[in-house]
Amino acid sequence: MKIGDLSRETGVPVRLLRYYESQGLLTSERTEGGHRRYHPDAPITVTRIRTLLAAGLPTRVIRDLLPCFAGDGVALQSCVHDHLRTQLADLDSRIADLTQARTALNDILEASTRTLTPA
């Protein structure tokens, strides 16, 4: 499958497919003319990459998880569940930090508005 065909089938721009390849997430073979040719299951791989990216996982983690898929879907083998739980805990921590920062910023804005509004 050519890169343009993979792009059309998955809806992922060619530039991103090249990036996934540069990050070791997607592999291709080169023709004699230097064109990329992807394996027929590349759309499944791209879907998995997009699913893991949407879950907030960085490409370095995704690279480690790609060999651990069970079947053709997006379910991962149980051997990586602890790793996923760690990623989830990190995400929860970042959300808590952002929520705290949002509250503090809102408090500053409200205090500023009260100070500047005549009684």
Automatic annotation (TrEMBL):
Keyword set, alphabetical order: DNA-binding
Keyword DNA-binding: yes
Entry-linked InterPro entries: DNA-bd_dom_put_sf, MerR-type_HTH_dom, MerR_fam
Top-level lineage group: Bacteria
Signal peptide positions on this chain: none
Regions that span the bilayer: none
CDD domains: HTH_MerR-like_sg3
GO terms, molecular function: DNA binding; DNA-binding transcription factor activity
A Pfam family this chain is assigned to: MerR_1
All residue ranges annotated as the HTH merR-type domain in the record: 1-68
SMART domains registered for this protein in UniProt: HTH_MERR (SM00422)
Protein name, UniProt field: DNA-binding transcriptional MerR regulator
